[in-house]
């Protein structure tokens, strides 16, 4: 077999065999197939697409390109979740402790933020001492001892995806359904979960602005998971406006803590309860008819302190300062706090999640390039949702900054992020669709 023949077959629109895909991915991961051939192949895949079968084979070749975690010897079941990325998305920080508090183990590897989209690992690093770089042995030991673990991605988890993603980034081949689906699912499958809840965002502050694209991606990822024996649920959720109120790392940890104590913004609570409900349902091998009961159980752990206790346990087990969880005033704080007031009143018609996400990056909460330093203390609070009435003179946003020059730039960006209407506006739905799949 030769790499050039495989490239030519895909260029000419043929369906590649499992052996051809494995040959290409293994050779590329080892370094035997150079970047220029992989780049040509990626472009051929981008233009010609892939069948479901090819996409599953690509996913499994990438999943097997490095460590494949197997937790079945230590846990009866392990449930994971994945968000396709958004603004103010701190759901993992709430849903994982909720699920673990209900007795279903939750072992998850998370990523860092990039561009307008935040990342769970950055948020957790707002907590003094919290270790996100667990070894595989530590990850397993903590999953067994505590039924909850939340770490950064191991360097050798689906290494083919890391190499391919870097090439896709510079060859205009990122927005391809089979390439996105296999990239996400290869990491989830290698991380060892039996059941996976996908939170696929759609709207202005997401990577899938169109609902139809998000639905197609979700269906494809559910099919991939089911075909390799995973129980799957994919929620299609709104990301036209930020989720909850807080955007920025320590601010989001504080909001997650409020939610785990039974408070916090209503939309965040509802979102977390829904996601956690599906995780519980998959963990217990229950059908959709059990979702309401599982969601109600999840909600009870927010109100009775069990989920909050699980977060404390997680933070303590990973070396974090539990005092900051008990008293969020001890989390990193910004030097300057300033309100943004728009000179009108009216019903909020839109509140652009993309502009809010970019404003948070400008304040220093996110990074434009991989490896950039971030400031955990900065960010913003969004005080209104689409459909709310904004009275004149009331702040729409509160900014938290450590550099005064950032404040003026961000203020301008945010003033144009809000659109008001004199007429009442319908609130945005939280979820648009649910796609499920079960191998049994
Ligand atoms: N997230 C991933 O992990 N991979 C993609 O290709 C796109 C989003």
Account of the 3D structure:
The protein is an alpha/beta fold. It folds into 3 domains: 3-49, Transferase, Pyrimidine Nucleoside Phosphorylase, Chain C (Transferase, Pyrimidine Nucleoside Phosphorylase, Chain A, domain 3); 79-327 and 431-437, Pyrimidine Nucleoside Phosphorylase, Chain A, domain 2; 332-421, Alpha-Beta Complex (Aldehyde Oxidoreductase, domain 3), CATH 3.90.1170. Helices cover 46% and strands 15% of the residues. The protein contains 17 helices and 13 strands. The chain has helices at 3-11, 18-30, 35-48, 52-63, 91-101, 120-124, 136-146, 159-170, 177-190, 211-227, 249-260, 266-283, 291-303, 306-317, 322-326, 353-363, 404-415, and strands at residues 79-83, 106-110, 148-152, 195-202, 231-238, 246-247, 336-340, 346-351, 379-382, 389-390, 397-401, 418-421, 431-437. Strands 1-4-5-13 form a 4-stranded mixed β-sheet, with helices on both faces. A 4-stranded antiparallel β-sheet has the order 6-9-11-7, with helices on both faces. A 3-stranded antiparallel β-sheet has the order 10-8-12. Helix 10 (211-227) links the parallel strand 4 and strand 5 (231-238). The model has no long low-confidence stretch (mean pLDDT 95). The site of uracil has 5 residues, from helix 9.
């Amino acid at each position: 077999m030769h790499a050039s023949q495989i490239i030519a077959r895909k260029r000419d629109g043929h369906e590649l065999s499992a052996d051809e895909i494995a040959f290409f991915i293994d050779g590329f991961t080892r370094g035997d197939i150079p970047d220029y051939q992989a780049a040509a192949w990626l472009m051929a895949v981008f233009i010609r697409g892939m069948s479901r079968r090819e996409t599953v084979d690509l996913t499994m070749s990438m999943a097997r390109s490095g460590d494949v975690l197997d937790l079945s010897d230590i846990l009866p079941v392990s449930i994971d979740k994945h968000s396709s990325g958004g603004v103010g998305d701190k759901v993992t920080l709430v849903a994982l402790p909720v699920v673990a508090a209900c007795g279903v183990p939750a072992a998850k590897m998370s990523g860092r933020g990039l561009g307008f989209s935040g990342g769970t690992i950055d948020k957790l690093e707002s907590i003094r001492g919290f270790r996100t770089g667990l070894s595989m042995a530590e990850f397993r030991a903590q999953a067994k001892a505590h039924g909850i673990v939340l770490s950064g991605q191991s360097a050798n988890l689906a290494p083919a995806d890391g190499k391919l993603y870097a090439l896709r980034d510079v060859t205009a081949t990122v927005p391809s359904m089979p390439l996105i689906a296999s990239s996400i699912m290869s990491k989830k499958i290698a991380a060892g979960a039996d059941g996976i809840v996908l939170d696929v965002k759609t709207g202005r502050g997401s990577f899938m602005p169109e609902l139809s694209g998000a639905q197609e991606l979700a269906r494809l990822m559910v099919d991939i998971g089911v075909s390799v024996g995973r129980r799957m649920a994919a929620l299609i959720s709104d990301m036209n406006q930020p989720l909850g109120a807080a955007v920025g790392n320590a601010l989001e940890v504080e909001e997650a803590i409020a939610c785990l104590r039974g408070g916090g913004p209503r939309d965040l609570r509802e979102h977390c309860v829904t996601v956690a409900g599906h995780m519980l349902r998959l963990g217990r091998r229950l059908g959709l008819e059990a979702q309401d009961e599982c969601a109600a159980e999840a909600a009870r752990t927010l109100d009775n302190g069990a989920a909050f206790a699980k977060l404390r346990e997680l933070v303590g087990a990973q070396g974090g300062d539990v005092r900051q969880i008990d008293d969020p005033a001890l989390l990193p704080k910004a030097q300057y706090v300033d309100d943004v007031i728009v000179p009108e009143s009216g019903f909020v018609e839109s509140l652009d999640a993309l502009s809010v996400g970019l404003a948070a990056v400008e304040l220093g909460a996110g990074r434009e390039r991989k490896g950039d330093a971030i400031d955990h203390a900065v960010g913003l609070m969004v005080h209104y949702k689409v459909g709310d009435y904004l009275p004149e003179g009331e702040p729409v946003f509160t900014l938290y900054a450590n550099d005064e020059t950032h404040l003026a730039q961000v203020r301008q960006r945010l003033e144009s992020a809000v659109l008001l209407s004199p007429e009442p506006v319908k609130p945005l739905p939280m979820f648009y669709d649910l796609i499920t799949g079960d191998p049994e």
